[in-house]
Design brief:
Elements (H helix, E strand, L loop, with lengths): L3 H5 L6 E2 L33 E8 L7 H8 L15 E4 L6 H9 L3 E4 L8 H6 L2 H19 L8 E2 L9 H9 L4 E2 L3 E2 L10 E3 L6 E2 L9 E6 L2 E2 L1 E8 L2 E7 L12 H16 L6 E5 L7 H14 L5 E4 L1 H9 L21 E6 L8 E6 L16
Parallel strand pairs: 2-3, 2-14, 2-15, 3-4, 5-6, 6-10, 7-11
Antiparallel strand pairs: 1-9, 8-10, 12-13, 16-17
Helix pairs in contact: 5-6, 7-8
Bound molecules: zinc ion (ZN).
Zinc ion binds next to loops.
Length: 381
């Protein structure tokens, strides 16, 4: 498994990049969306649906799939629409079982790219050139498409490993490869009230927590900001510090009981729900569930959300559909999707020689490629 710790603590120079002022008379939905910490299109807060975006990063395999199954394929539904809840997966290649990725996709979860190599070096990602980013992102989309049997056009989101982009190099590649959104950019300054997703027609509009940040404009390309979480730390009796983090599982100290976990998630949710209802990110790694109490707290929180008739747990892609075309709660009609037929005939492939240290297995849909797919040979020829 990935050393989660690396994912969680990259970071942290803070300075502000000011994008050009977004001109609302020129920037019109659905193709152009200005950044806002207010309400979209003058919606009253109480009339705004509250979207919740559950995401999971890294390899998908038999270790973590049972938790995804329990969460997403167990009859949980949004109260108002009666549609099944869905999540978004940022998938990296090594140790991924593509027949399980197909299952997640079949249940209408959103499958996105999190690189091929997930190399544990922020310097690598920061300094990678255009060709490397194209291979890591475009190549991973090809791998998912071929081995999980998912149309390439259905894979539209990106999260950079360790949230480390190379600024404009990475954003230029995402845009030119026709990805639709990035969700790698944390914001602390725009966490209260939280920042809504926006397009980069007028550039990057938030604090730069992990340098470099993009400086150019990218037409109709969305940033789904990683609005920071805060964890209350008692430093002296009655005195608290708010510890910020980009992903929900990175805030320390880790909650250790069901109740503590529930309260932590709920407090962060309320900052969205009671202010402007910007889509609420619940971004983490399944390893956070290794403590069974914490897992219970997460599930309790999800089930608590599902008792609210103005809350919708959806993929990032579906939340962005709303951001492009916002409407009051009473007019919003979520269209339910039923699971697709499986088109995956799975095979277990084994490779004694790989470009990595040692042998690897790979379960995929269709025939096994001759070689273990990797950078510069994504089809495994
Ligand atoms: Zn990762």
């Amino acid at each position: 498994m990935r050393p989660v710790i690396f994912c969680l603590f990259s970071a942290v120079l803070i300075y502000t990049v000011t994008g050009k002022f977004c001109d609302e008379s020129q920037c019109k939905r659905p193709s152009c969306v200005c950044d806002t910490q207010g309400s979209p299109e003058g919606l009253r807060v109480e009339d705004t649906p509250q979207f919740v975006m559950l995401t999971f990063d890294d390899a998908v395999n038999v270790v973590n799939f049972p938790d995804y199954e329990e969460l997403l394929m167990n009859g949980r539904k949004n109260l108002r629409s009666n549609c099944p809840i869905q999540a978004t997966f940022f998938v990296s290649h090594e140790y991924t079982d593509y027949s399980l990725v197909h299952e997640l996709w079949r249940y209408n979860n959103d499958i996105c790219v999190h690189s091929i190599s997930h190399l544990p070096s922020t310097e690598y990602w920061k300094n990678a050139n255009q060709t490397i980013w194209e291979e890591e992102l475009g190549g991973m989309r090809k791998i998912i498409s071929k081995f999980a049997n998912i149309p390439e056009s259905d894979i539209v989101g990106v999260r950079a490993p360790f949230l480390q982009t190379a600024g404009d190099v990475t954003f230029g590649v995402m845009k030119s490869l026709d990805f639709h959104y990035d969700s790698s950019m944390p914001t602390r300054q725009k966490a209260n009230p939280p920042l809504w997703p926006y397009t980069m027609d007028y550039g990057y509009q938030q604090d730069c927590q992990i340098t470099p940040c993009p400086t150019k404009n990218y037409k109709s390309f969305f940033i789904v900001p990683m609005v920071n979480y805060f964890r209350k730390l008692e430093i002296a009796p009655g005195h608290f510090l708010d510890i910020p983090c980009a992903m929900a599982d990175a805030c320390l100290p880790l909650p250790e009981t069901e109740d503590e976990t529930f309260q932590y998630l709920r407090e962060n949710f309320e900052r969205h729900y009671s202010t402007n209802r910007a889509p609420f990110p619940l971004f983490l790694h399944q390893a956070w569930f290794s403590n069974p109490e914490r897992k219970k707290g997460y599930f309790k929180f999800v089930d608590w959300l599902l008792q609210k008739d103005d809350v919708f747990i959806v993929t990032i892609r579906e939340a962005l559909e709303f951001v492009r075309n916002p409407q009051p709660l009473d007019n919003y009609k979520q269209v339910c999707k039923s699971p697709k037929q499986s088109t995956c005939v799975s095979n277990q492939c084994t490779y004694s020689k790989t470009p990595l240290n040692g042998p690897r297995n790979m379960k995929c849909c269709g025939t096994c490629p001759a070689n273990y797919p990797w950078l510069w040979n994504v089809e495994g020829n």
